[in-house]
Amino acid sequence: MNIPKKLLYTSEHEWIKVDGERGHIGITDYAQHHLGDIVFVELPEIGEEVAMGESMGVIESVKAVATLFSPAGGRVIEVNDELEEAPELLNEDPYGNWIAIVELSTSDDLDKLMSAEEYTAFCANLD
Amino acid sequence: MKYTPNPQSVVEEMLQTIGLKSLDELFSDIKAEVKVQNALNLSEGMGEMEIRRRMKDLAARNLTTEDYPCFLGAGAYDHYIPAALEQLLLRSEFYTAYTPYQPEISQGILQSIFEYQTMICKLTGMEVANASMYDGGSALAEACNLACTSSKGRKKVIISDTVHPEYLDILKAYSLSGRMEVVLIPGKDGAADIDTMIKAIDSETACAVIQQPNFYGILEEAEALEKAVHENKSMFIMAVEPISLALLKSPAEWGADIAVGEGQPLGNSLSMGGPYLGFFAARKDLMRKIPGRIVGQTKDLDGKRAYVLTLQAREQHIRREKAGSNICSNEALCALAASMYLTFVGEKGLKDIAVRCHQLAVYAQQQLEQVGMKLKFNKPYFMEFAVKVNDPGAANRKLLENGIIGGYELDGALLLAFTEKRTREEIDQLVAVLGGK
Amino acid sequence: MSKLIFERHIKDSNSFTLPPLAVPAADISDSIPRQFLRNQHIALPEVSEVEAVRHFTELSTRAYGVDSGFYPLGSCTMKYNPKINEWASRLPGLAGLHPYQPEETIQGALQIYYEMQEMLSEITGMDGFSLQPAAGAHGEMAGVMTIKAYHQNRQDHQRTKMMVPDSAHGTNPATANMVGFEVIEVESNNRGLVDLDDLRGKMNEQVAGLMLTNPNTLGLFEEEIHEIAAIVHEGGGLLYYDGANLNGVMGIARPGDMGFDVIHVNLHKTFGTPHGAGGPGSGPVGVKSILLDFLPRPVAVKKGDTYAFDYDMPLSIGKVKNFYGNFGVIVKAYVYIKALGAEGIKQACQHAVLNANYLRHQLRDNYNIPLDRLCKHEFIANSKRQANQNHVSTMDIAKRLIDYGYHPPTIYFPLIVSEAMMFEPTETESKERLDEFIEAMRAIAREAEEEPELVTNAPHNAVIRRVDEVTAARKPVVKWEAP
Fold this sequence. Notes:
Chain B is α/β, with parallel strands linked by helices and 437 residues long. Chain B contains 14 helices and twelve strands. By secondary structure, chain C is of the alpha/beta class. Chain C has three domains: 5-61, no CATH class; 84-340, Aspartate Aminotransferase, domain 2 (3-Layer(aba) Sandwich), CATH 3.40.640.10; 342-469, Aspartate Aminotransferase, domain 1 (Alpha-Beta Complex), CATH 3.90.1150. Chain C is built from 16 helices and twelve strands.
């Protein structure tokens, strides 16, 4: 299981890469593995305000569906359109392909997320 | 009759194999207080001959459109059904199959649904269609539900009361969910009051709905409404009649986002109101949100063309409480009848039928007017119109006495439908009875 | 490769004709203004009658019904569909009725409606039925709507939640959501039954009711059903019975006596009407007296010797379907119940349960059966042994069954059992059929051990091999396009 060090993680298997006031958001290797072949990604709308833990999109595989919850509160400023045509990118490289970029409203939310070490332990407990 | 093939001796052998002494022991996990103490209060079983007699007796207590010419329409139409279709529907591989979950042994059914979807797209001009819904009314309610749930909190459904009253009743029941707020706009002179509908559109409006032709058979002028709805980023939903589409502008041409309708006229018998099918077609970008089953084309491991139920992540068995609808079946056999119908009559045949229905209606109007009767609404219609009568109930009784199933009773009028099955003699007789002093 | 009907198009080959026009040939453009007329070409296929008949006949040869062979699809009750039922539903005196005919001209049909309502009430122990819903999920929706209307009518507006067990069919939570309830999941205990403590903990004044299938989706009877009913009723909620598994108790125990307030039944499962490759079905909804006022309208009533539809139901939820439901299906189920009678209904259930227990017993040496005890009409096995040994999955076993000429069981459901295979043989299978099927299942277990590729690459004898569902969902092609 690939869990990069510099990212922060949620218990719903999203990651966020924080760069100043912006956060790139995606799903983890664990998530893509358990969903199987991803067939569709419903992206959030640019300009949408999301709270931490709020639904911001949907990821579908053939036999499963998962809600994408925002790891932190903020405003969506960019979405990865490439996923509309090629959802399989999330299977191929879940950390190389972000889903949305959020302008963070506060850094407080980030304190509640897991580090790579914590997330590794969290996943180990699940299987 | 019994349809349990194992005789008592075999039953005992099986019980012995599993280590039980009696059939009762199979139910030892059910507490006595819950069990049926005496036999159910039902009649004794019947053999086939008794059943035939009883069912023939019951059928004989009805007066059927096979015997009497029928001028009733109002959402269910007495069209001709080709003989080949009736025969083919008795192929039991079709009618005794379940939903085609296992594509390898269900290719025939999956292909038939794929063909049906294609034909519905062709008729409506829309880009995608599902495998069918329960009927026209529930398909419309689901369309409105989709408009509301996919428009982020918008709840208003602006709908004309010239839509079929039963569809409105169904919409009301579906709106118990609290996700839809039905805004009913009274019609004017038998047609939708487009100006008032447009004025009712606001930031809360998810969709506006009309039926074409409407419940009174009249053609709705939909252009201005479509424009206003789309300027407001709401959806334009149309309930349409499939045979009329051979002649009339398609919902796609009107600019509809979702088109639904009652598919019964396409090869399904009247059958006292069901089973029928609802068709549901939409713009391509709504494909992943539409309710119901969808069949898609794909390939098998050898690269051979194959069909499969697809986009299942929309559906209840995967999405459970987050599913857009709870529907998990379609009316596959009725949909098969519909695609067979369209195949057997063909494009020219369908157009001939539509034209014939209209011509017979026009003839009836002329004849009725010649004997001094008047239409309730003077507007263009397709194959159905309302003619003024003083006492619709009495008029219908008189028609029945003369061997005619009359029309749908409106306030001071009868709504009459003319299918290609009606003859000049039948219409002349209708006119003679209605126009007689 | 089978051609699509569109690929059989030959211009001018269709010779469908109407009788000669006997009225003046009115010009359409005189009576319908141009803005209403269609410009778009439809492009339906033109095919001769004989070629069309061959096309649809050929499609039927690539389908599999109960008449083709054993169909142990769990939770679907794929019993034999008696042919006399088909005959009856096609009688011109029934199939040729317009729904808006005057009531005096449809007395026979109304009698069928009325008697059907009465018979279903007797079989299920309810006080009244509406035959309007078109399918099981549709009946569920109508039933849950009556629960909502009941609470609203009592001004009890805080009941916004519906409880559903974790073993439930997906339609239950989806239905609750469709009617605007928030879903609360109730856990199953290690015996596969509702966890009473969990239920007690979750029942409160915000809960409108509990939706339950009994026997449940594991094929097990909820033994503590009276206690479950008491917990829900004492908390002010109502108990909903999903009739999907009624075949496992009909004639033996009645949902009404178990404490259920509202129920739907599937005429296409329990009462022998065919599934039609996905419909039409029929899902009548029945209720106890407290809910009668809320049923979809109209219901059939008897006044003296005549029958009528009663629309005078001011508290009714309205309608869920045009007209009065799937009459043609109702006729078939009516004939079925009349044919079986009280004794036959009970016997059908007994034999269904016997067949299920026999099958379970005979498969246990070769397959893991997670809850291996007395079941009702169905049971769950899984592929745990085969998976551990050679990575042979439930999907593989299902596909291999196709090679042996069987329809596979329901797979990967219920969700609380991994790699589930749900078998429901029904009462209309003979021991010989079951034994042949058991032999096939044992042969597949052997193959999984000795030649696993044979199973993992199955099917080999079907008209196609496994399909690419991923591409189908990623790049959907949902209609034919002219090349």
